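Researcher: First entry.
Model:
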Amino acid sequence: VAPEKITTVSIGASVGLYVGLSGVVQVGVAESTTLARVYGSTIFADRDLAIEAAAPRDINQNALTIAGGIAGVGGAIVVLNARDTVVSEVASGSGSTAADTTSLNVGGDIDILAEAELTSQSNVGGAVGGLFALSGSVLVTKYSQTVIARLGDYTQITAARTNSVFVRANQQFTQNVIM
């Protein structure tokens, strides 16, 4: 598991007799690779066996601009680029009798799980005052996930009381925006 929590706060403020001009540019890049791999091994488990890789990520971005004067101009640009790769696998062997073949001797269930989850909260805004007042905000979010759960070729399973073999890949993206 590779949990990550990121919080950013950016504030720009300006007051002038004639012109108040403020701006914020906030760029966030978050990238992770999480891997749980069994390769060329023999595993003995009297009970359940779980091979899990998870990358939960929580990002909270905050940006505010304040400007005042006869002319008040403020703007905020916030960019988030997040990339996750999560792999949970029993890797393929080169043949059923090859040395790199994996053998699972399990007394219970088998669960191979890869999971990526992103929760993003973005609060972007501006306050301006004056005879001429202009405020703008831009939010750009790009998120990509590669999530793989795999039970490889030539894996040998000996199961005494196994009811289930689960191979699951889960993805979740939640974004809340206040502008």
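Researcher: Second entry.
Model:
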Amino acid sequence: ESYLKYFGQVVARLKLRLGGFISSSYATVDSQKNKKTAGDFFLVDISARNTDVALSKGGQVLGVESFNLGGDLLIDKIVQDFKVSTESAEGYIRGYEAGTLAPGAIKNLEKSLIGEIEFFRSGITLAINNLNDFAPLPNIIFLSGGGAKFGLFRKILSQANWPTDLAIRKKIKVNILTPS
């Protein structure tokens, strides 16, 4: 409540007109209306420390579940395993994405992070389970946000053995979504 009051004071001081707040998940789903990605899907919005899993059906957000894991989980793991600074860990990720890491470094990085990404997948699974009231659920997952830029997320989540007790009847497909 105190944050909201402070935010209101800032808006008033700047003489702005505020219509309301909208979460990034709702805004991202809304940005997909009338596009080839429109339809039924999960949006997994990965920020540094938090992740939102939004269910979109027919262009509407029916539910959002959040958990306190994000892209920094991988940075922290690289720092720990490779005994490097945060900046160097981010450099490993940039190098992986650019294809400039040596094959041995790629193998070591993937080996280091696979467990963390599987742990992260379990958070997504729990969030999806919490949205089972809206079954049947779509089999398409779009990754969005800063953490989604790391292709290893998509690679491992695409290859993952997702639990069979989810209300998803088809093989899960994972893609990257970049809102325009």
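Model: Note on the second entry: Strands lie at 41-46, 51-57, 60-67, 140-144, 173-176.
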